[in-house]
Design goal:
about 525 residues; alpha/beta; TIM Barrel; 8-stranded parallel beta barrel; about 45% helix; binds phosphoenolpyruvate; binds magnesium ion
Length: about 525
Amino acid sequence: MAVEMAKQKLITRETALLRVKPDQIDELLHPSVDPLAEKKAVELAKGLPAGPGGAKGRVVLTADDADAWAKKGEKVILVRTETSPEDVHGMHAAEAILTAKGGMTSHAALVARGWGKCCIVGCSALNINLKNKSISVNGKTIKEGDWITLNGTKGRVYAGQLLLLPANPDHNKWYKDLMTWADQARTLKVRTNADSTGDAAAAIKFGAEGIGLCRTEHMFFGPDRIKAVREMILSDTLEGRQKALAKLLPFQRKDFLGIFRAMKGLPVTVRLLDPPLHEFLPHTEKDLRDLSRSMRVPFEKLNSKNKSLHEFNPMLGHRGCRLGITYPEIYAMQAQAIMEAACELSKRKVKVIPEIMIPLVGHVNELAAMKKVVISTAKEVQKRFKTKVPYTVGTMIELPRACVTSTEIAQIADFYSFGTNDLTQTVYGLSRDDAGRFLPFYVENKILDDDPFITIDQQGVGAFMKIAVAQGRKVKKNLKLGICGEHGGEPKSVEFCNNIGLDYVSCSPFRVPIARFAAAQAAIKEKQGKKKK
Ligand code: PEP
Ligand code: MG
């Protein structure tokens, strides 16, 4: 209606753009549960709406089963207490993912959203019994193989199979017109968070104007790669780590070649390694025994090293640039892979714009040290390839200390990207992994208007962002500023980013159209606000 009315000149295009809700754009991009069927359905439980859209499938409780059942042609929903990198093959095979634990930035949430897959996390009513292959939930029992339906947009789990309405934006001419007008109205750029060639290509189709976050740890999830990562983490010696890194280098180089190519000369921000260690450590004796054989290290020794790496709070532990500071060879390998891919393509006249990003910087010295490693590695590669590819080195701003010492950090950084997942965790003192247990209660009971991991807390987290922007731009007038936390695809947060003067937002591929649309609405509201003044 809005588009037709604008075409008939009954309203302006700007009014048409403001009449459509970003959520309505979202509905067009994913299959959705039929609202009539949903009204009559038996609700089993509620959780956090981590990946939008609807999905139905038969319950499976392990990633291997999800994979095996899907190969037999079954539609399955993978139900886990929480997920880890070892579950990725099953998550991929499943129609949707449902977890009992975890928040909006948990492993399951990030991975599913990246793929545009329906996902509900933090569904604490689920009690999963792996032995009996059953789940008890609010007094009911669901067995392996039973059908359930998820509404990932609302975070609702239903018994049985509900009717799903298909997504079909490509055949919707009104959608196409609206998005064309949105792109004309907005000033904020929209990038994507992508860490594979497939995600990058999908995001380009959705209108992404670059990659704002390539999480390199996500490139290590494959079974052969995760083994090399574990070898690297568990090695006691530089020699051992370098041996493992040498195995990872060709994988990384190949991945970057694919991603740079898919992005067709648009900027690509590659973030150097930032895994919370617990996501990568081996959990089973079998994995440890395998590693002990391939590393030729006695099982007992490896087991005690594995135990010694246990952290009480991995999210605030040995991750981000702290890994690079203690093991610079890791970041050197990654910088080498990025630059080798860039130089190879540049020699073949393919345009590449690499932006290398250092995570979890709290002190300027951390960034200075890591930038030095990147620059010296890049120099060596460029000399070897006899070619020069311009690149920049910037940082994530995701700790309060980085915000308030932005005057110093901006002197070293070529760009900033706000990591608002960690910034919310650290400004608010909320654990990303645990807050999902009580934040829905806060929102339901109006203690908070919104979950701060979904919508930026403008008063608190936003205040820190504003400090970083003001100090950073005072040092460098044209300092490029973006956001790559999950808020980058959420409409209210996109408006906030527009209003504080960021250059771009970055979000998962399926949220790119929503961010483009929200950016247009923000620009129109800003313009109208200025006119009123
Ligand atoms: C963030 O912290 O906002 C971010 C994008 O990084 P990650 O979620 O990988 O910690
Ligand atoms: Mg982070």
